[in-house]
Amino acid sequence: MLAALFTTLALLAGATAYPATTASCWSAPADVAASASDAAWPASASDAAWSASASDSAWSASASDAAASPSSAPWSGNSTWSTGTITPPPASFVVPLPDGQTNLTLPADQQLTIATVSRGVQNYTCTNGIWVSSGALANLYDVGALLEATAPVASGQKVTDGLSPLFLAAQPFPADSPTPSLKHEFVATPDAVAAISPRFFDPVTGSSVTLNKVGAINSPDNSTADISWLQLEAIGGQGDLASTVYRLQTAGGQLTGPCKIEGNVRSVDYAAMYYFLK
């Protein structure tokens, strides 16, 4: 599947549209009217309480799971989950930050080391009558070799612009194949009781990083359906996989507006490009 997607992208190098029906929810309740803005980053104890019963969501987790090591993640115990090959992106590739904004910036002293496309779900919890972001789970697939192979015929940004829509439409989640290079989850923020933070890790080597959000903009493409673009900064002492991570070129994942059942959890399919700098 992954090889077929990459082959198609190399030939077309510019797909931008994706079926609206792919941005579906995994859980059954239909008690939401979506709005254009991105959900708030979890900031309170109730926001960060993303535990749920199995009937609420197949990807729910308890507070202890969220704070624990990768061995307690939902994919624990599946021997087929192993790291994929990581190829550094070509030196000519530049992280595609949009023009005309200052919220997302490139650190002058850091270099791009990993470029990936992700496929996963954004989790939301009904909190005080509205849907609040409560974490995410995703598989990340390295695209360094693809960027190297397509560099002579297409710009890196044109290639990466097409990857998220393709993966949202065609790559299942969860799935055991193809083998992901990295994984993404949320954990309890170190030294903080009332928040959760994004974490990326290699499930084989254990290399990881936990980060805080330091910048965000609405998706320039479709802020109604696509989650925001983010700049994340590593928390000191919480891993060395990266110093800065960007979530860009998002597709799907958005869920905002009113909800009826307090504590109910929904998971919305998404894909995005993640870029790792050190």
Automatic annotation (TrEMBL):
<dbReference type="InterPro" id="IPR021851">
    <property type="entry name" value="DUF3455"/>
</dbReference>
<keyword id="KW-0732">Signal</keyword>
<dbReference type="Pfam" id="PF11937">
    <property type="entry name" value="DUF3455"/>
</dbReference>
<protein>
    <submittedName>
        <fullName>Uncharacterized protein</fullName>
    </submittedName>
</protein>
<feature type="signal peptide">
    <location>
        <begin position="1"/>
        <end position="17"/>
    </location>
</feature>
